[in-house]
Amino acid sequence: MEVFALALFIITFAITIFGFSRWADRDTKLPPGSFGLPVIGETIQFLFGKPEKFVGDRMKKYSPNIFKTKILGEKTAVICGPNGHKFLFSNEQKYFAAFRPHPIQYIFRSYQTKAAATPPPELPRDETKVLRQPGFLKPEALIRFLGKMDTVTQQQLQAHWEGKDVVKAFPLAKTVTLALACHFFMGMDNPERIARLVQHFDDITVGMHSIMLNIPGTIFHRANKAAAAIRTELMSVIKEKKDAMASGAKMQDILSHMIVITDPSGKFMPEAEIADKVMGLLVAGYSTVATTITFLMKYVGLNPDVYEMIRAEQMEIAASKKAGEFLEWEDMKKMRYSWNVICETMRLVPPLQGTFREVLTEFTYAGYTVPKGWKVYWTVSTTNMNPEYFRDPQKFDPSRYENGEAQAPYTYVPFGGGPRTCPGKEYARLAILSFVHNVVKYYKWEVMDPLEKVNGDMMPTPEKGLPIRLHRL
User: Fold this and answer.
1) How does 83-104 read in b/e, with b if 16+ C-beta sit within 10 Å?
2) Which of 12, 277, 383, 441 is deepest in the core (most CB within 10 A)?
3) 417, exposed or middle or buried, with CB in 10 Å at 0-12, 13-18, 19+?
4) Range of the domain at 219
5) Beta bridge partners of 461
6) Residue 324: inside a domain, yes or no?
């Protein structure tokens, strides 16, 4: 009888707890979905499956508007579709604040002690504020850099491709992009010094979204070793920059600005913080541009008609230039078709899969409540390949961006939107267009393995480096 009574009590208690939890869920009405396994949640599926598949499968299973998950240690709501994009972009700072996953915080915040894990309020919270304040990425500032973009691209093409029949496109895209970023952000013009850093930046890019297991052989461990190596190099660059500035050298790069900027109390930014912020800028200006250039080379190489239209546009611009003249702002405005090709490349292979936000205050979306402190994951993959918004979405078709075929608002947002639109959008546009101008002016190419496997998700990487056969024009 006692055993029966105890069993009855346990069953009654379990039903009560279950009923209470169901009532609580109904009361708060959390988004549908699953937090996955204890501690790790659904991190493994997120990191090692295709991001678009991870999101797409859950949209079908739970809701096309919003679902919950747990990734990288955080309870997360994934807000989907164009309406989700609009809601997120329209409510920055009201419901959302920028959030960096813990691996990124760890890699880029070495200067902070455990007792001071958050930057002081008088200092910029992230690199984008450093960029926005002096207007380095405004068109009027970028105009002065166009000639350098043109020159660097020509130099790199000549150094790595001249006289060769077969080359790999991906390594060159990375070298060109890193050279541009180092010159723009730091005023550094040393190709050999830059080339040594390429693999380190690759390791960091992959490690920014990884399981925080800091033991030899893991992705996160390699990222931290790479960050330490880059940080050492940057500390040396900072000292050289300070010496040059003390000697009266004219400095117009972002690193110089970081060195002289002060907080309201008159304190300068510590060198270790400058190094980490510059490293963050370089990573942001490197991986996304290099990825887009690489896959543009692939899709243009596979579509001769697209190549011919780009070349016709670019040769008309080249014919208008005198010998020795570099690209100018007006030239970039004429590259409409070339930009359509770049847009289509970014739709098929997004250079940035998504970003995270932190929920500042509880809000309701699509009938569900998202609590304060949760994270929100924004991703382009909920619209880019949706036939509802893009006809024949698997097809590479730059003509879809021409007159009469503009997409509905918030369906194509490769650079985000709202107050947190990527501040480097214009920089990326000019860097890629400058590369396109020079590569089609001098070369035609064939992709040697159209079915080459693409590895990685956060930084898509052609397994063999995208080998192409060159034809010098």
Assistant:
1) ebbbbbbebbeebbeebbbebb
2) 277
3) middle
4) 35-472
5) 455
6) yes
* Residue whose C-alpha is closest to residue 380's, from 370, 393, 368, 369: 393
Query: Which residues, other chains included, contact 381 with Cβ-Cβ below 8 Å and sequence gap of 6+?
Result: 51, 52, 55, 56, 350, 353, 354
Q: Tell the residue number behind the tokens 């369906």, with chain if given.
A: 411
Please state, in angstroms and rounded to a whole number, the distance separating the CA atoms of residues 143 and 329. Answer: 6
Q: Is residue 270 part of a domain?
A: yes
301: domain CATH number?
1.10.630.10
User: What's the token pair of residue 155?
Assistant: 């130099």
How many structural domains compose the chain?
1
Assess contact for 457 and 51: CB atoms under 8 A. Answer: yes
DSSP label at 79? Answer: E
* pLDDT given for residue 231 in this prediction: 95
Q: Is residue 241 part of a domain?
A: yes
Question: Per the annotation, does 422 bind a ligand?
Answer: yes
* Distance from C-alpha of 411 to C-alpha of 428, rounded to nearest angstrom: 20
Length of the chain: 473
Beta strands in 16-86 (DSSP E): 66-71, 74-79
Local structure of 84: helix, strand or coil: helix
Give per-residue pLDDT as tens, 437-446: 999 999 999 9
Residue 371 Rama label (left phi>0; alpha psi -120 to 50; beta): beta
Question: Would you say residue 168 lies in a domain?
Answer: yes
